[in-house]
Amino acid sequence: MDHVRKKNSNKSAKQISFSIDTHELDHHNEHGFLKNTTHHDHDDVVDELVPLPVYIVNGVFFTLFFSVAYFLLRRWREKIRNSTPLHVVTFSEIAAIISLLASIIYLLGFFGIDFVQSFITRSSSYDLLLEDDIEEEEEEEEEEEDNQNHKLCDSIVSCSPQPPQPSKMMIDSSSSLITICDEKDEEIIKSVVDGETPSYSLETKLGDCKRAASIRREALQRMTGRSLNGLPLDGFDYESILGQCCEMPVGFIQIPVGIAGPLLLNGVEYSVPMATTEGCLVASTNRGCKAIFASGGATSILLKDGMTRAPVVRFGTAKRAAELKFYMEDPVNFDTLACMFNKSSRFGRLQGVQCAIAGKNLYMRFRCSTGDAMGMNMVSKGVQNVLDYLQNDFPDMDVIGISGNFCSDKKPAAVNWIEGRGKSVVCEAIIKDEVVRKVLKTTVASLVELNMLKNLTGSAIAGALGGFNAHASNIVSAVFLATGQDPAQNIESSHCITMMEAVNDGKDLHISVTMPSIEVGTVGGGTQLASQSACLNLLGVKGANKESPGANARLLAKIIAGSVLAGELSLMSAISAGQLVKSHMKYNRSSKDVSSIVASS
C-alpha cells in the first residue's frame, strides 16, 4: 500500500509541476507576443506616416544631428578664439540650430516612445508573473501540508519511527548544486579552449577572481598539454591584483624572503627584507650589516627627489621646435606651466623642464615630486595637461608620444646617471681596521686596491654605464621584490659607483655608494599586496606618510642604499680574501635530490 501511495503521489506531483510549468510558459509567451506586437505596431505606424522606410529616415536624422552639431561646435570654437560674442549668429548658424532642434525632437519622439512602451510592458509583465509566483507558492504549501498529514497517518499506523527525510533532501540538494557548479565550470573551460570565451574576460563575466584563475589555469593545461602542478593556486587574494598588478593570473610564484641586519643607518636599526633565490646573497649582506654596525653605523643622505617623463613632439621645421624649447626653458613661463602640471594631483609638483632637440623633433624632460608614490602615472598625467595647454599656442605641434625615451625609464641611460631620476642618494661608512680584519677577513689596503682595479678600472674597460660597482643590482632586486617595487626599474635603480679609500693614517676604510636614480614608492602597485605590505611595515615605511608626504619613499631609498653599501662591503671582502668560490659552494649549492622531491610531491 505504501509503495502504491508513494507512486501515485509522485505521479500527481509531476502532473501539478507540468501544469504549472505549462501555465508559466504560456504566460511568458503571451506577454512576449504582446511586447513584440507593440513594437511592430509602432514601426507600422511610423511607416504609414513617413513615405520612406524607417531605417532611411532614422539615418537621415542621425546624420543631420551629428553634422550640424559638429558645425556649431567648430563655429563656437572659432568665435571663442576670435573673441566674437556667441549670440551674434549668421543665417547658416540659425539654419543649423533649427535643424539640430528638429533632429532632436524626431529622435526623442521615435526612440523615446518605444522605450516608454517597452518599460510599461515590462512592468506589467513583472506584476503578472509575481501574481503567478504567489499562487504557485500557495499551491505548493497546501500540497506540502497534505503530504505531511499522509506521512503522520502512516507513522501512527505502522508505529515505527521514520528517518528524517528533510535532512536527506538537503544533502541531496546540496550535492546536486555542487554537480551543477562543476558542470558550469566545465562548460566555461570548454568555451575558453574552443576560443568562444576570451580568457581575459573571465573575471568580468564570473565576478569571482579565484574561480576565474582556476578555470583559466585548467583551460591552459588542456590547450598546451602541459601540467602546472607545483604552481600554487590557493592561498592568494586574487581580488587584490585585479586591475592593478597582473592580468589573466593562473597562480603565483613563491620566492623566499630572508632578513639581513640589523642595519644601523642614521642612528636607527633596520631589519632589511630580501626576496631572492640566490644562495649566499642574504648571508653576505648580513655580514656587511654586521661590519657596519660594529663600526658605529652608516650615514645615508638624499640628494634629489624627482620623477621624470619626457614626451616627444614634432614640428614642420626645426625653427618652430626651437621656439618651443626657448618657451619651455624661459623662467617667466615656469609658473604657468607648473600651474597646468600640478592641477591633476595633490602631490605632483613640477620642479623643472629640460629640453633637447633632434632636427625638428623636441624632447621635453619634465621632473616633478610625487609624494610617497613612485610616480610614473602621476607625472604622465601632469605632462598630458601641459601638452594640452601648449596645443593652444602651438597648434602645429604634433605629439608623437607621451614618452620619447629621454626620461629614461627601464633602460640604462646616461641622462639618469648624470641628472638623476627618482631618488638620488649617497651612503657612507667608516669601517674600523679591527672589523675589517676580524669580521671581513681581509685588509684595508687589499680592499682599496681591489675596488680601484675592479669597480673603477675594470668597469671603465667594459664601457659600463652606471655600473661601477660589484653587485648593487643583487641587493636592489631583492629589496624591490620584497617591498612590491617594479622589478624592471632595477635597471636604472642599480646605477651605482662604489668608492673606497684608506683614512685615519691608513688604518680604517672609508666606503661609499652613490646611487643617482633609485625609483621606489610605498603606495600603489605591488606595495598594496599583503606580503609586500608586511615587508614595508617591517621597515616602518608602509603606506603614505600623512605628516610629511614623500618621507616614507625617501626613507626606503636610503635603506636600499645602506643595504647596497653592506652588500658591496661584504662581497668585495670575500673576493679580496679569496673566499667567493668557497662561500658559494657552501651556501649556493644543494645536496638534495631535487628530482626525487618533485616526484614525491
UniProtKB/TrEMBL annotation:
<comment type="pathway">
    <text>Metabolic intermediate biosynthesis; (R)-mevalonate biosynthesis; (R)-mevalonate from acetyl-CoA: step 3/3.</text>
</comment>
<dbReference type="GO" id="GO:0005778">
    <property type="term" value="C:peroxisomal membrane"/>
</dbReference>
<protein>
    <recommendedName>
        <fullName>3-hydroxy-3-methylglutaryl coenzyme A reductase</fullName>
        <ecNumber>1.1.1.34</ecNumber>
    </recommendedName>
</protein>
<keyword id="KW-0472">Membrane</keyword>
<dbReference type="GO" id="GO:0005789">
    <property type="term" value="C:endoplasmic reticulum membrane"/>
</dbReference>
<dbReference type="GO" id="GO:0008299">
    <property type="term" value="P:isoprenoid biosynthetic process"/>
</dbReference>
<keyword id="KW-1133">Transmembrane helix</keyword>
<keyword id="KW-0414">Isoprene biosynthesis</keyword>
<dbReference type="InterPro" id="IPR002202">
    <property type="entry name" value="HMG_CoA_Rdtase"/>
</dbReference>
<dbReference type="GO" id="GO:0016126">
    <property type="term" value="P:sterol biosynthetic process"/>
</dbReference>
<feature type="transmembrane region" description="Helical">
    <location>
        <begin position="52"/>
        <end position="73"/>
    </location>
</feature>
<keyword id="KW-0256">Endoplasmic reticulum</keyword>
<feature type="transmembrane region" description="Helical">
    <location>
        <begin position="94"/>
        <end position="113"/>
    </location>
</feature>
<dbReference type="Pfam" id="PF00368">
    <property type="entry name" value="HMG-CoA_red"/>
</dbReference>
<keyword id="KW-0521">NADP</keyword>
<dbReference type="InterPro" id="IPR023076">
    <property type="entry name" value="HMG_CoA_Rdtase_CS"/>
</dbReference>
<keyword id="KW-0325">Glycoprotein</keyword>
<comment type="similarity">
    <text>Belongs to the HMG-CoA reductase family.</text>
</comment>
<dbReference type="InterPro" id="IPR023074">
    <property type="entry name" value="HMG_CoA_Rdtase_cat_sf"/>
</dbReference>
<dbReference type="InterPro" id="IPR023282">
    <property type="entry name" value="HMG_CoA_Rdtase_N"/>
</dbReference>
<dbReference type="GO" id="GO:0015936">
    <property type="term" value="P:coenzyme A metabolic process"/>
</dbReference>
<dbReference type="GO" id="GO:0004420">
    <property type="term" value="F:hydroxymethylglutaryl-CoA reductase (NADPH) activity"/>
</dbReference>
<dbReference type="InterPro" id="IPR009029">
    <property type="entry name" value="HMG_CoA_Rdtase_sub-bd_dom_sf"/>
</dbReference>
<dbReference type="InterPro" id="IPR009023">
    <property type="entry name" value="HMG_CoA_Rdtase_NAD(P)-bd_sf"/>
</dbReference>
<dbReference type="InterPro" id="IPR004554">
    <property type="entry name" value="HMG_CoA_Rdtase_eu_arc"/>
</dbReference>
<keyword id="KW-0560">Oxidoreductase</keyword>
<keyword id="KW-0812">Transmembrane</keyword>
